[in-house]
Amino acid sequence: MTRDDEFRSWAQQHRQGLVRTATLLTAGDTHTAQDVVQNALTKLYLAWPRVRAADDRQAYVRRALVNAFTDEMRSRGRRREDLRGELPDGAVSLGATDPDTLLLYDALRELPDRMRATVVLRYFHDLDVRETARALRCTQGTVKSQTARAIDKLRARLGPLLRDGTPAPPDPHRPDPQHRTHPTPALVAAPAPRSVA
Amino acid sequence: MSNLTDLMTRAAAGIDATPTAEVLDDDLARGHRARRLRSRRAAGAGVTAVLAVGLALAVPLTSTPPAAAVPLVAFVGEQPDGFVLDVVPEGWRVLASTPGDLVLAAEGDSGEDPAVYTGRIVATLLAPGSVPDDLGTAPTVTVDGEVVSVYPMLGADGPDGTHGVFVAQGDGRYLYVQVPAEVHWTAQAAAEFAATVTATGDATASVG
Questions:
Q1: Which residue from B61, B95, B112, B176 lies 20 to 30 Å from A66 (Cα-Cα)?
Q2: How many helices (H) and strands (E) does chain B have?
Q3: Which of A 70-89 lie inside 8 A of B, CB atoms?
Q4: ipTM above 0.95, yes or no
Q5: Which pLDDT score, from 0 to 100, does residue A184 have?
Q6: Of B180, B40, B198, nearest in space to B104 by CA
Q7: Gap between the Cα atoms of B197 and B175, Å rounded
Q8: What pLDDT, on the 0 to 100 scale, is given for residue B51?
Q9: Where are the domains of chain A?
Q10: Is B9 on the interface with A (CB under 8 A)?
Q11: Phi, then psi, of B121 in degrees rounded to 5
């Protein structure tokens, strides 16, 4: 099997997981998420023999994705400065209609990029503090403090949605209660994988 | 906070991003383009650096010009054991290769004693813990957004133009590439070349 064959086979299995993670990292901006995944996959292709040989391929791929996310957000930050006032705030191109998901993305969007990455790795990928620090190339102390601050912000923003496993009751004061269908059986029946490799 | 995990899992499950054949074709095409670009850039880096030095020094036409950096050319031939080469310095060849070491030699090198590395390019994979203790404080350059450590190697009278390049492999191991003064490369050029050398799954990491 050639390098291309191997890479293609691997990408076919794992690309969707990368897009899902990147969509959370970008707080629901699927266009940016696709850019992040494309850039990460290009780096992974260049390093494919190393990726294939890595003892912990998942960790390698996660780090590539986080690096691509960081680069993309830094680049977009620069472009945003250039085009200030011309771009709509928080533009989201999202097919999801689940109101809880929209609220989640709204809340995630209010977090700084690195803080958002921290909670995605901790709570979506279920990484421990050490693994998260390794993926983000920061100290474990930074992960702990970023996580704590992120949870405080998310709790303040999402309120009842974050109470231990309890579906949020209807609340007329919540920003987008219409068409509320939580819990959504079709979505619950098809959980997303939490790993990227 | 398991509810946050549930929320994220449900949000992710709503994203159908199953790749089509066209999407995968595009991914591969981007990879191919990046690979070609990296090889071309590595080939140009050494020459550009020497030209820049020459201009900066405003070398008089009557003086001896600085030795030209050996340009990189696409590697043709059988790939060595344990490593994949995209490019090599012009005129250089694979002298010896094992899953543990790769040795390149210049044109005119008699090829005697491949275990002698003087004047030759050597690549070897280093196991975690086998890198210098002060690697974190070594001079660095950036290649493709990755930080690469490049030591100026010392001869009997100080730095002799040899570069010791450490490229992180992402799993705790490092690819070490020693580049001799004979190619007349800058640290950046040496690092650009080292980044094109790939240790395959067959490469064995040295411990020492």
A1: B176
A2: 3, 12
A3: 71
A4: no
A5: 29
A6: B180
A7: 8
A8: 44
A9: 1-82, 97-158
A10: yes
A11: -95, 130
Q: What percent of chain B has pLDDT over 90?
A: 33
* Cβ contacts of B13 on chain A, cutoff 8 Å: 20, 187-188, 190-192
* Phi, psi angle pair for B147, to nearest 5°: -80, 130
pLDDT tens-digit readout, B134-164: 788 889 998 877 889 998 887 667 778 899 9
Q: Which of A72, A88, A60, A78 is nearest to A22 (CA)?
A: A72
Rounded distance between C-alpha atoms, residue B89 and residue B106, angstroms:
8
Report how far residue A192's alpha carbon sits from residue B13's, in angstroms, rounded to the nearest whole number.
Answer: 5
**Alpha-carbon separation of residue A131 from A108, A110, A144, B127 (angstroms):** 21, 24, 12, 20
Q: Is the pLDDT of residue B193 over 90?
A: yes
| A194 has pLDDT over 60 | no
Of residues B197, B38, B42, the one with CA closest to residue B125: B197
* A-to-B residue pairs, Cβ atoms closer than 8 angstroms: 158
According to CATH, the topology of domain B2-206 is: Jelly Rolls (2.60.120)
Predicted local confidence at residue B203, as pLDDT = 66
CB contact under 8 A, A24 and B13: no
- Are A104 and B31 in contact (CB < 8 Å)? no
For A1-82, CATH number out of 1.10.10, 3.40.50, 3.90.550, 1.10.1740 equals: 1.10.1740
Residue B169 in contact with partner chain A when CB distance is under 8 A:
yes
Q: Is B198 helix (H, G, I), strand (E, B) or coil?
A: strand
Share above pLDDT 70 across residues of chain A, in percent, rounded to a whole number: 72
- For the stretch A20-77, pLDDT in tens is 999 999 999 999 999 999 999 998 988 887 787 777 888 889 989 998 998 888 877 6
Q: What DSSP assignment string belongs to A97-142?
A: --HHHHHHHHHHHTS-HHHHHHHIIIIIS---HHHHHHHHTS-HHH
pLDDT for res A77 = 66
Best mutation target, A25, A37, A41, to test chain B (most B CBs within 10 A): A41
* B11 vs A183, higher pLDDT: B11
Q: Which fold has domain A97-158?
A: Arc Repressor Mutant, subunit A (1.10.10)
Q: What is the pLDDT of residue B117?
A: 83
